[in-house]
RNA sequence: UGGCCCAUGGUGUAACUGGCUAACACAUCGGUUUUUGGUACCGAAGAGUCUAGGUUCGAAACCUAGUGGGCCAACCA
């Protein structure tokens, strides 16, 4: 028992149950088994968070095991990147291991399996074998080589290993059941011949074990208690268990714990993709600058973008663990990073889209260094000085010649506070030929105790330093870009996912270092990109601040929140059902309103849709009332009354709910 | 046409394993505070738990059927 009151997810329930049934707590052991064929992405952090999180929770070891059985795809670069990312997230593995460490052991067991008649060498083409395999709805047929003698199998397998055959000539298969409804049980391949250089074993082997044979047995060798993976491996469980059962027979004295595999739903994030193969395409096609492009959902991309390990771990915790398909809204990720950065980053002032303000009553060459608080969320962050002078920049967006009183910013004749400085009043503007405001002439007031609605950030023109700012938008314009069977995800690429501009910053930023994070006051969180140099600062926008003002505005051309379509398209009948649910709880006045609504919706309902609802459970009076109202409307507009309808009405007349009876009566 | 898995507010997870008004977080909408239209705080709206039967004093949970979604036919993992 772990004693907390926090609710457990289904995997924790399983573990608690195993513990309660006698599994000793010190036998708990987990693993994270990436294939080193690409970079880790936010989806992997869920798997990482689950297994490493369990390790932390139960103080159990967690192995990092590279599942490196396919030398054709795997590279050392990926091994290094994966280790870097996991470390960065703050997790510690017990052992760094490789499936390739077990090649000899696996081979010995395979020989044993052959001797026991549980595996055989097949010598057909892959096409022929695919044909014999059948389909999900059709059983397979046995290979003509299925009944080779043990001696022949042994001889062939040894010669496969010795490199006597060309690739594809022979394979080793488990002898299970070609008629099993689970395709994975139809004599699955255990070994194939592959003349490829392996990043660890070099050219020692020319036969390589397949995933199913390798993965489960690696778990077993490492004495993993719970082998956790994503849902698509559910069908593999039967095979996992089959292999395990036999190998257990060979080694139970030395390896007493048979591991168990359990599956959870993987993480999907809206407006992005999670497939390594597809991410690789983005890299190769030059859509992004690399695996660590700040727009990528990779861990290295998020890191470069300014996400913190803390925020990602928090995110994974909030997302939860279950077995149903899910799509997590990016807003949750954004919430997590804001929450973290709000507490930790220093506030600074930067103007991204400047317009000049001249303070006419401020002496020409005067300058003052005013005190500014670094972080009001963290008293220990201290203060810094920011320079003030006659000419400053503010954001173009923060000024309007005229505006209503919901606009808290600067307007002609209006006053506004300059953060950490004075209160200014706009008196006049100077415009360029095209009518654009070039300068705003203001007067300042040293009485800062006044109450004014708005506070603006600003930067002194002559003290300002410049920097390149990279602002990112989502990479795809579609909520689930790779879920369209008829369209390629590349069609949804957002051409405006990167905007580069030059900004003016307060001079304290001059010696900021790569990776450092700031809040640009009123704008968002920004960090210094890897491309930054002392001569040319480069900032990434990690995420904007929440902006309740932007939401009220008519809406710029931002593609941020396209209206959610699902509300529009809902069929009338389902809206009616929903309205009905609440009907009996409403005030009389509201009931009338809802009734009108239902009557209106009734026009869009077909009788076929309505009839099934006649059977609605008696206790759901509201739904039945809504159905009755709809029915009445449809009868009015010419629907012919049949027996089913009459029956429904009669049943309603006898109901104990008065509202329903009344509706029925008026038909 | 077979097998397996899944179904709870817009989204994601809970519900002490059959027992209070179905909880929490994000998102949404109000309000208070505020030298960030941020943060913090307070509040509101939103779910008869896919549908229909059944078991039971009692079902989101158990059973049956249906509907919808996902996965499975790589010498990938």
Topology:
Layout: H1 10-20, E1 30-32, H2 42-58, E2 62-66, H3 76-89, E3 96-98, H4 103-115, E4 119-122, H5 126-133, H6 150-161, E5 171-174, E6 189-193, E7 207-209, H7 211-222, E8 226-230, H8 236-251, E9 260-264, H9 276-284, H10 299-305, H11 309-319, H12 330-344, E10 346-348, E11 350-351, E12 354-359, E13 368-373, E14 383-388, E15 391-395, E16 399-400, E17 410-411, E18 415-418, E19 423-431, E20 437-445, E21 455-456, E22 459-460, E23 465-472, E24 498-505, E25 517-520, E26 524-528, E27 537-544, H13 548-552, H14 566-569, H15 572-583, H16 588-602, H17 607-610, H18 621-636, H19 643-653, H20 658-665
Parallel strand pairs: 1-2, 2-3, 8-9, 10-25, 12-20, 16-17, 18-21, 23-27
Antiparallel strand pairs: 4-5, 5-6, 6-7, 11-24, 12-15, 13-14, 15-22, 18-19, 19-20, 23-24, 25-26, 26-27
This protein binds one RNA strand of 77 nucleotides through helix 5, strand 6, helix 7, helix 8 and helix 12.
Structural features, described:
Residues 554-570 have low confidence and may be disordered. The protein is an alpha/beta fold. Strand 26 and strand 27 (537-544) form a beta hairpin. The protein is globular. The chain has 20 helices and 27 strands. It has a seven-stranded mixed beta sheet, with helices on one face. It has a seven-stranded mixed beta sheet with strand order 21-18-19-20-12-15-22, with no helix packed on it. Strands 4-5-6-7 form a four-stranded antiparallel beta sheet. The structure holds one RNA strand of 77 nucleotides.
